[in-house]
Task: structure prediction
Amino acid sequence: MSIIHVVLSGGVGSRLWPVSRKSMPKQYIPMFGDKSLFQLTAERNKDFVDHTIIVGNKDNYLLSQADLIRAGVYKYTEIIEAAPRNTAAAIAFAAFNTKPDDLLLVTPSDHIITNDQAYAKAITESVALAEQGYLVTFGIKPSKPETGYGYIEHQGNEVIAFREKPNLSTAELFLQQGNFLWNSGMFCFQAGVYLEELKSLEPEIYLTALETSQRQCNAFLPETETMLIPSKSIDYAVMEKSEKIKVVHTTFGWSDLGSFESIWDHWESEGEEHRFIQNNCIVGSSKHVEFLGVDNIILVETNDAILVVAKKSSQDVKKIYERLEKEKPELIN
Result:
């Protein structure tokens, strides 16, 4: 049995426009001590695993290769998607490339994690559960009533229910109840167990992903077969339906850095005072900036775009990205 680190790297980080683009998604931007989130992900996990599998897309695989070199990870396999078909299929591609009893440690490539000791403890606990045949998800103790994350209702390691991203009042209720965790999007399980559950619960995804995987040429997956795969997340396809789910209640610091608000919170927690003027945040600008009569504002500047957004509206930046994708696609590429 080997432990395989499966790195999912197909996202574009649309809520972080204009910094994150299709050609340079957020996971590759060196914003964290001159390192990217992808590089930090590879470094964080390399001592826990025997091999690494990168599931990415055809537009960014060279960026992955460069960051793996920077991270000192040289033993890896690439699976390059012709088009993203969400995480259920992406993880299946990795599972088809391993042995049934191999343990897959599945992580996104765009999360920030602190407290290495607590992270190692969570990995050890998840591996022990996965060896018993469970599909393990990592739950994060919520620090605030966040509306941008899904939640896991739990009792110890037992999952009671998965909950959709809530409105503010519901999120506040979750925190008051005390038995809800943020859904981190990190998993650990045996490759064979995952494929058995996927085949049972979502046979169309299983069969079309298998067909696509069998037609893989070098690292590249074929486009025609890929487009036949239903696009569904692992949560909807497997985790919310399976009877083999366990959750590890983690204590490490975590953020998916999926919005400018979460980047604000991270920089604030790290004491990066130079990022702030009064109670406003600056991202990417090298110009002298003044704010007058406003607070909780985020100013984002790139060479071709400026975004001014209220901190509380950070989740809605995705709507701008989706509109520009139709009206001015050159601004998101």
Summary: The chain is about 35% helix and 25% strand. Residues 3-255 form a domain with the Spore Coat Polysaccharide Biosynthesis Protein SpsA; Chain A fold (CATH 3.90.550.10).
